[in-house]
Design goal:
- This protein has 14 helices and 14 strands.
- The protein is α/β, with parallel strands linked by helices.
- It folds into two domains: 286 residues, TIM Barrel; 66 residues, no CATH class.
- The strands form three sheets. It has an eight-stranded parallel beta sheet. Strands 4-5-6-7 form a four-stranded antiparallel beta sheet. A two-stranded antiparallel sheet has the order 3-8.
- Strand 12, helix 11 and strand 13 form a beta-alpha-beta unit.
- Helix 7 packs across helix 8 and helix 9 runs parallel beside helix 10.
- It starts with 12 loop residues before the first strand and ends with a helix.
Length: 373
């Protein structure tokens, strides 16, 4: 929390992001739990015992079913080979909207094979959903339970979807970008609809769980190369700034999550009131060096990054150590609010190689030794 608050610390914090951010269970026998492979066990133990834990917990849960207004939500799951398919159907009057997701046993990610909104007619139907059909139930119990479990090994971070995320994820990326650039008359009402719920949820959670770190996701949907910077202000700043304002009003610390290019949106992220930013990806994934962000925005933002997950899995240990040293050097140089050494994501396959584990160990070793320099 000293890092989050911009206070002096004895060394840079080190986090493995999702590993330790999520409560991974290597003893869970679920065939879709890739972490029950024995190769994951030492990595999970390293995260839990040696890193500065930042548990990510969502404060809302969906409670949607059939409503008196005529809107119905139905979810069906089927197994086929080594994959699990989830079909979602939303009925609004005479219209039926469908989506299809796929999850494979050996890959810890979900593919959206079919998105919920595909046509203008789908958008019109979705906009007819009553507010009670889209309102998620705020539930603080997971946050409080995680905080009790973590204790003094780390902190709990509110994981929150902003209005842009809630809308853009309803479409395929192709349909989303075309719609956002060419049909603001259709896209803006969807954002207004999502914002009503996001703003209410953010205010309720921030008031009941004050003074904590937040991770607000959705910014990258409006960053380059997907949308031009002018639309970032219209679609992200306008609708996410009120979420950030709620967090700040109750003493919290809003951290904006935004992969990829940052150069043209950093001023707007600061204008929104953010006090943290992740994962500050290095070129070529991003378009600004960590050292430059530190010099220009380090007084405003705690920087979380800037290790690429692909480098952890692909670089030999000696080369990876140089990457970590560079990130620590650039992230802590000069005056700044704070820095957390952190990767951009985590492995999602069933096995962890010896070099991958060693590279994670390097992050801990160098971060812990950095304060002694």
């Amino acid at each position: 929390m000293l890092t989050v608050k911009g206070a002096a610390v004895d060394r840079p914090a080190v986090s493995f992001y999702e590993i330790g951010g999520w409560r991974l269970d290597p003893d869970d026998p679920d065939p879709y739990n890739v972490c029950n492979d024995p190769s994951w066990r030492p990595l999970i133990a390293l995260a839990e015992q040696e890193t500065d834990l930042i548990r990510m917990v969502k404060p809302v849960r969906r409670t949607r079913s059939c409503l008196g207004s005529g809107a119905c939500f139905a979810v069906e799951t089927r197994e086929e080979g080594n994959a699990r398919f989830t079909r979602t159907r939303v009925t609004v009057g005479a219209a039926t909207l469908t989506s299809l997701d796929r999850r494979d046993r050996d890959v810890a990610t979900t593919w959206n094979l079919e998105h919920l909104l595909k046509t203008e007619e789908d958008i019109a139907a979705y906009l007819q959903l009553p507010d009670e059909a889209l309102a998620d139930a705020v539930d603080l119990n997971p946050l409080l339970a995680a905080e009790a479990e973590v204790g003094d090994r780390g902190i709990v971070m509110v994981d929150f979807r902003d209005p842009l995320y809630r809308v853009a994820s309803l479409f395929s990326m192709e349909d989303y970008t075309v719609l956002a650039m060419t049909r603001p008359d259709l896209f803006q009402p969807l954002l207004e609809q999502a914002a009503r719920h996001a703003w209410a949820e953010a205010e309720q959670v921030a008031a009941a769980f004050p003074g904590r770190l937040w991770r607000i996701v959705g910014s990258e949907y409006a960053s380059e190369p997907f949308l031009p910077p002018a639309l970032y202000a219209d679609y992200w700043l306008r609708y996410t700034a009120p979420v950030i304002a709620s967090v700040l009003r109750h003493g919290g610390f809003p951290r904006v999550h935004s992969h990829g290019r940052l150069r043209h949106i950093l001023p707007l992220i600061c204008e929104a009131g953010a006090v943290g930013l992740d994962p500050v990806e290095p070129p070529p994934q991003g378009d600004v060096a960590l050292g430059d962000v530190r010099r220009e925005y380090g007084q405003r933002l705690v920087l979380f990054g800037n290790i690429e997950a692909a480098d952890i899995e692909s670089l030999p240990p000696a080369a990876f150590e140089r990457k970590v040293e560079q990130a620590l050097r650039e992230g802590t140089q000069g005056e700044g609010r704070g820095f957390v050494l952190m990767p951009s994501a985590c492995p999602y396959g069933r096995s962890i190689s010896a070099d991958t584990l060693r590279n994670y160990e390097t992050m801990v070793r160098l971060a812990q030794a950095w304060g002694a320099r």
